[in-house]
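Re: the request from the purification team.
They wanted to know what the chain is likely to look like in 3D before they choose a buffer screen. I agreed to run a prediction and write the result into the notebook, where they can find it.
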Amino acid sequence: MSTTTIVIIVVVVVLLIAAAIAVALAARKKKATARREKAGHLRQQAAAGTPDAQRSRAEAQRAEADAEIARQEAARAEQRAQQARLGHQTEEARIEDRVREADRIDPDVNQRRDDYSPQTPEAAPQTRPMDTTNDPRTPADGTHRAAPSTPEAPGVPGAPGTGTSSHPDRG
């Protein structure tokens, strides 16, 4: 191998290396340009989405304002309900006081019994006391108990064995 051949081989190798470097740099530059374009495109999309973001932000703010109004209204409603409950309790207390006063005056009511509790008009219907002095089924303590139902209840319409019926179709 002569010196000229070696020089030519070295020059060719250097040129090939230079060409490879040039190709690599060009590819890198092209890749960078493509990435810049992609970044620019993404920025444009983001800018185009800005009105959507502003719209959704405004929507979220309106929803938050509506929620705050609803919370305030709920607080006012709760306050009204509390006042109504208090008014109701006060009225119930007044009614109970009146019932206790009526029970205190009524000779048929024993307020000193251990099981005494005032019967408000809602709890017990207002009835006139019955005269039970002639009823043999009335116990000595004055309490009323329902009479036991028997099939031999003479004269009671609809009782079995009496031949009478309280139903209009059965006679």
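For the purification team: The two ends are 144 Å apart (CA to CA).
Please add any questions underneath this entry.
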